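Sequence design from tokenized structure. All designs in this work follow the same two-part layout: the structure record, then the generated sequence. An example of the structure record is given first.
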């Protein structure tokens, strides 16, 4: 069986991405960032966040 990836809270991801907590929650609610809910709280997989972040940087640099 594959090892389960660690799930991070919205607060932890906000610190990691240097974003405001409300921004992280809004992005999750709008399905603009990979996230899932556990017991009413948002959770994030760091590997998915890293891929999302890299893709955002690449798309931003292409638009400039």
């Amino acid at each position: 069986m594959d090892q389960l990836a660690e799930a991070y809270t919205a607060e932890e991801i906000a610190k990691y991405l240097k974003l405001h907590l409300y921004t992280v929650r809004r992005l999750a609610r709008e399905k603009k960032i990979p996230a899932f809910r556990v017991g009413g709280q948002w959770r994030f997989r760091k590997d998915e966040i890293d891929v999302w972040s890299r893709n955002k940087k690449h798309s931003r640099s292409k638009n400039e």
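DSSP finds three helices and three strands in the chain. We note this feature because it recurs in several other targets discussed in the main text.
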